[in-house]
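Hi R.,

Here's the input for the zinc ion complex you asked about:
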Amino acid sequence: MAVKKVVTYGHPVLRKVSSDITDFSNIDSLIQDLFDTMYEFDGIGLASNQIGIDKRIFVVDISHMEESDEESNKPLVFINGRVDNTVGSDVDSEGCLSLPEIRINVERYESIRYKYLDRDLNKHSTNFSGLLARIIQHENDHLDGKLITDYATPADLLKHGKALELMRAENTK
Ligand SMILES: [Zn+2]
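And here is the predicted structure with zinc ion in place:
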């Protein structure tokens, strides 16, 4: 069990395309680190490269949120996931533990089918909608080296440019 440092905007690992996990021998401690770190910083989702490990895994927990239903009312682990099918679109504001204080409107699919392995390495192909679909797309973006700033409008960049520049400088010195 360990709370890890969350890397911030400008760190090169956030731009790496994460690789599938093929060696599952240390998966339990990685999952525990992801949950410990996510809870420590009050996140609702955390991808592995946000703690510096470019492997295709992320965790989600919205059990304390209003939108949570029985199905999503537990901590979730997604390993080697891929978006398989998409329906509709929806715009909402998103934050990110790697971009503290910044919120950006992001257009996402309204619902998706996601293929992944759970923490027991059982295969799933599951439909998600609403907040869970949004978080999964956000975390899956991390695994593909994408960030919410990639969806920023010129107005967003004007508003957040200074903060982004400071983070980038911090990560390149
Ligand atoms: Zn994020």
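One thing worth noting: DSSP finds three helices and seven strands in the chain.

Cheers,
M.
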